[in-house]
Each structure stands twice: as structure tokens, then as C-alpha cells.
Fold Beta-ketoacyl-[acyl-carrier-protein] synthase III.
Amino acid sequence: MSSPCFISGLGMHLPRTLVTNSDLEHIVDTSDEWIRTRTGIATRHFAKADEPCSVLAYHAACKALENAGMTAQDLTHIFVGTFSGDYNLPTTSCLLQDMLGLKGLPAFDLAAACSGFLYCLETARAYACMYPDARILIVGSEVTTSRLNFEDRTTCVLFGDGAGAAIVTGQGNPGRIKVVDAMLKADGSVGGLLTIHGGGSACKPVLGQSIGPEYFVEMNGRDVFKHAVRCMVEISGTLLERNGLTTDDIDLIIPHQANIRIIEAIGKKLNVDSDKIYVNVDRIGNTSAASIPIALTEAEASGRIQPGMKVLLTAFGGGFTWASALLQF
Ligand code: ACO
């Protein structure tokens, strides 16, 4: 049996540049009307050169620490979910550890694309079980724009940059949000539908050779859409069922913010009214691993989540990976 695990603090950070659909009309052959109708996105934030993944992560982490009433020195571990880290090496979690002045603290990156934050949460839950005094910083941070092909209108209009963070604690330091349960899934057999091949050991960069579209997000949007809806609906239902709950018991669902049509389809299949589903994709776009913690931080800070509420999180991303988590505020 697992021991209790908590979230003691939440924080988020968005880069300073706001990009509208009209701005994108100057870059690719698209329109505000097409983007709004097909995706629900109106604006997103793009990071500048002085805002790499580690810097976004650092700002979100500082806010989560403040929200938890802790300092960096209280932390015991750092996990960062990202597919768009500063470098291949050093890892973004090690860069973040250095920025926080925490020499010696274990730190690693976790690659599960848009499910990265929930994969970090479940990993932290296991660590909190092993080390009840653990105070683990988990961060979803992405500069997705560093891996977008701005000549491909089918992908570049969908994503944005940002970071969200949480402090996960074990039973030695109970926090205000209980992590009741979580579940992770993956299916590598269909991973080819959403890829960034370039730069890996099977698709090596060659010195002096220019890079091609394989170095950026490539996606079969229609198929990804179908898998995303089916997987998030299935895993949410399974998680609720194994906790003896139905969607009627849930006060708010926070799905991965990829596309309003995916979110609406999830709501329909789970038979949940739209007022019980949190949406910020219109303002922030798809920030991959940062999507869930940004939405969660916003929802609590705005008062949309109140003490006593049950909140269901669900995410889907490249790999494919998908996940769900149940929180009790
Ligand atoms: N602006 C204008 N026209 C466009 C654009 C654009 N940005 N992008 C595509 N089009 C055109 C296409 O070229 C096509 O034109 P054609 O009919 O002349 O060939 C037409 O619009 C329709 O294209 P479809 O791909 O059929 O459009 P669809 O309705 O399927 O919407 C979309 C595309 C938005 C990508 C949709 O498939 C989708 O949302 N998929 C899920 C993608 C997603 O959210 N992935 C992330 C989830 S996982 C993760 O977060 C990593």
C-alpha cells in the first residue's frame, strides 16, 4: 500500500512575448479564423533567446517554493519533464539545480513529452513513498518553439512556451493537496505519428550539414487527435473506477491543453459539462509538459479550485504516453 503523498506548492511562468494568430499570419500561410476554429487558440507565449527551458523552469520553481512556504534549501530532489531542454547535456534539471544553488541534490530529466509533468508526479509519488521526508521539486518546462518548423503551418500554430512546477512532499511534510492516485500508460507502436527524429542516435547530425524538417515536430494531426481523445478518456475512467468514483464526484477536470476540440470531445465522452472542464488553451496554446501544471496553478490561484474539491488531471503526448492523476484539495 502506498503512503500518502501531497502537493505543497504550485507555480507557473510564461515567457514575456505574447504572439497572436495575426502575428503568425506574417510567418506562415494561415489565418486567425482557421486557427481559432480548428484549435481554439488565440494567443500563446514564445520564449526569446534569454528565456531557455531552464530559465522558465527556474521562475516557475521559485514561485512554487514561495507558494509552499519553502526555500530551495528545503528540497531533496529535482525532476524536470521536457522534450525541449536547453541542451542534450547538461540536462535541464542539472542546470536548474545549479541556478537554485543546490550542489549535490539528485536531479534528472524525464522524457514523456506532453505527459511529462504527470510522469514526474507519479515518479515523485514513488520517491515520497521511499523517503517520507522528501520534498521534491517537479517541473514541466518547454520551449516548444525551439523544436517547431515555422515553415509547417500544420504544427507551428499549435504550440507555445512556458513552465509549471509543484513541490511534492511525503507523509513527513503533509501539504494542502493530497495526491490520491495516479496512472501512467504508453504505446511505442504508434510513436511514429508524432516525432522529432533529428539529433538522435538513429538520425545523427552530420557536422557541416544543414538540418532538415526531421529536426522539428512532425505530426499526423488527425491520427494524434483520435488517439489523444481515446487514451485520455480511457485512463480517466479507469483511474476513477479504481478509486470507486465517477465523473459526478469530480469538481474539475484539467485535461492537457492541446486543442479545444480534443478537450470538448473528452468532455462529451466522459459526459461532463463544459463548466467542469478547465480551459486555457485559448490564451496559452499547447505547452506540452508545462500544460497541466500551468493550468493547475491558474485554476487554484483564480479560486476556480476551492478546498474540499476533487480534481482530475489527464495528459497525452508523444511516445505515445498518457497519464491521469486524482487530487483532493
Ligand atoms: N492554417 C490554414 N490552413 C491549414 C493550417 C493552418 N495553420 N494547417 C493545416 N491547414 C489546412 C490543411 O493544409 C488542409 O488543407 P487542404 O484541405 O487544402 O489539404 C486543411 O487545413 C485541413 O487540414 P486537416 O489536417 O484535415 O485539419 P484538421 O481539421 O484535422 O485540423 C489539426 C488539424 C488542428 C492539427 C488537428 O488535426 C488536431 O488538432 N490534431 C491534434 C493535434 C494536437 O493537438 N497534437 C498535440 C497533442 S499531443 C501533444 O500535445 C504533443
Observations:
- The domain at 179-328 is CATH 3.40.47.10 (Peroxisomal Thiolase; Chain A, domain 1).
- The radius of gyration is 19 Å.
- The CA atoms of residues 297 and 303 lie 10 Å apart.
- DSSP finds ten helices and 13 strands in the chain.
